[in-house]
Write a structure and sequence with these properties.
Distance between the termini: 33 Å
CATH class of the largest domain: Alpha Beta
Bound molecules: zinc ion
Shape: globular
Helix content: 25-40%
Number of helices: 13
Number of strands: 19
CATH superfamily of the largest domain: Metal-dependent hydrolases
Strand content: 15-25%
Length: 467
């Protein structure tokens, strides 16, 4: 064996026990008590520490063009940052161009990701053009290439209408794919934006008001109905409002395979952040909602009606966020000229584990939400998402006693601020292994650019709310 992690407490989604873990050629080869090393084994004493599967961040936007710029983390700095927060796999988005086949879109994006990624990665395809059957059929080519997960946008000008959304759902049902959805009511959002701007309401607060609880909730309800009509599963990404949570819960109670993701920013902050002096730094879509929604999301997590936590990591610099005051062309800015998105790729696992450490949820639940469930949902549980013999040795060593106050200066991404500044974590990852290789230890990144591999996922057939 290559590596022996000795004396730690292993935490998986369904159990907690003391055992050693042995690793060889990037895989876990044994789990048990008093495992015996051989001559060339590196032995690491992890007594007093928790040993967890690496997190799988199902929602990132690295090197993503948006709002006249590009998100500040590329596939290197983003995945480096991920590794330093205990995340060993990221799912990024391929945005299909007009007339472009899904497979070409994946190849185009992978050419950018492959040389840079420091941890393993995969993609969801953002479906933008299914105007012909031939284009719709390319979903199957993507699936055969190991990318069985798609996403549609009910907002933005590049998003789809309900008819195209429905066609994508039907296709997914047929081939065994998962459709994710960014649910917000585009038309109502557009009307509200016009009204607020004509009334001179330009601050970040109005971004929230134009994409308020109902604007998101209506679209969640509609998306669930479309999935029911098409007889297939649905994955609502970045769910942030109570109406949506209630709709997901009801559909799941009725036995429909409806799944929801939420993000740490919705769990920790409320819409009050938009009243801060730099409220524009928190502009993301959907915006952070009020306390009632936050409480509903936490309750749903505890009940099991939220399936995953992911970051929607999409960082922009403060100078870019300031385009909400003065645009890049020197014109007066407003909430629509602020690039949408916040950082979080390095903060998700530490934050969720810290909430577990404080007793809000169990450590097992934290592992389930951040690692095991994404692995099952996206079709990579044959490789990742658990600590089991035969799986990739994507392992995080967590010190429950270490206290860390998040400071942007100590983060590893390419950004000049973070919305997480000053947030205190009770416990923190102290080491991360990616396929058995140490990529992070005690605050330092030790991995390599390009070491991450594109993960090919299995087709996804989900017929019930249970994974
Ligand atoms: Zn997103």
């Amino acid at each position: 064996m290559d590596l022996l992690l000795k004396g730690g407490t292993i935490v998986t989604a369904d159990s907690t026990f003391k055992a050693d873990i042995a690793v060889k050629d990037g895989k876990i080869i044994a789990i048990g008590t008093n495992l015996k090393p051989d001559k060339c084994t590196e032995i690491v004493d992890v007594k007093g520490k928790l040993v967890l599967p690496g997190a799988i961040d199902g929602h990132t936007h690295l090197a993503m063009p948006f709002g006249g710029t590009i998100s500040s983390d590329d596939y290197y700095t983003g995945t480096k940052s991920a590794a330093c927060g205990g995340t060993t796999t990221v799912f990024d988005f391929v945005l299909q161009g007009k007339g472009e086949s899904m497979l070409d879109a994946i190849k185009r994006r992978d050419a950018i990701a492959a040389p840079d990624a420091a941890v393993d990665y995969s993609f969801h395809v953002g479906v933008c053009d299914v105007s012909t059957d031939a284009l719709l059929d390319t979903m199957e080519d993507a699936l055969k290439a190991g990318i069985p997960s798609f996403k549609v946008f009910m907002v933005y000008d590049f998003g789809v209408d309900d008819g195209s959304f429905y066609k994508v759902l039907q296709k997914a049902a047929k081939i065994g794919a998962l459709v994710g959805v960014h649910a917000e009511n585009r038309d109502v959002n557009n009307v509200l934006v016009k009204q607020y701007l004509s009334e001179g309401k330009t601050e970040a607060w109005w971004h929230y008001m134009a994409k308020n609880e109902n604007v998101e909730g209506e679209a969640d309800v509609r998306a669930i109905n479309l999935a029911k009509m098409a007889g297939t599963s649905l994955y609502i990404v970045h769910l942030a409002n109570k109406q949506g949570v209630d709709a997901v819960t009801q559909a799941r109670d009725e036995g429909y395979p409806i799944f929801a993701e939420t993000c740490p920013q919705y769990l920790h902050f409320t819409s009050d952040v938009y009243k801060r002096e730099r409220g524009r730094d928190f502009v993301c879509s959907p915006p952070v909602k009020g306390k009632e929604s936050q409480d509903a999301i936490w309750d749903a997590i505890k009940r099991g009606d939220i399936t995953t936590i992911a970051t929607d990591h999409c960082p922009f610099t403060q100078a870019e966020k300031d385009w909400g005051i003065t645009t890049k062309d020197g014109k007066p800015g407003n909430f629509t000229t602020i690039p949408n998105g916040c950082a979080g790729i390095e903060n998700m696992y530490p934050y969720v584990l810290s909430e577990a450490n404080k007793g809000r949820i169990s450590f097992n639940k934290a592992v389930e939400l951040c690692s095991s469930n994404p692995a099952k949902l996206f079709g990579l549980d044959h490789l990742k998402g658990a600590l089991q013999v035969g799986l990739d040795a994507d392992i995080v060593i967590y010190d429950p006693k270490k206290k860390v106050t998040i400071k942007n200066a100590e983060m590893h991404g390419n950004l000049d601020h973070t919305i997480w500044e000053g947030v205190e974590c009770k416990g923190y990852p102290v080491a991360t292994y990616s396929r058995g290789t140490l990529v992070y230890k005690d605050g330092k990144f030790l991995g390599n650019k390009g070491a991450g591999k594109l993960i090919k996922c299995k087709p996804i057939k989900l017929n019930s709310p249970t994974l």
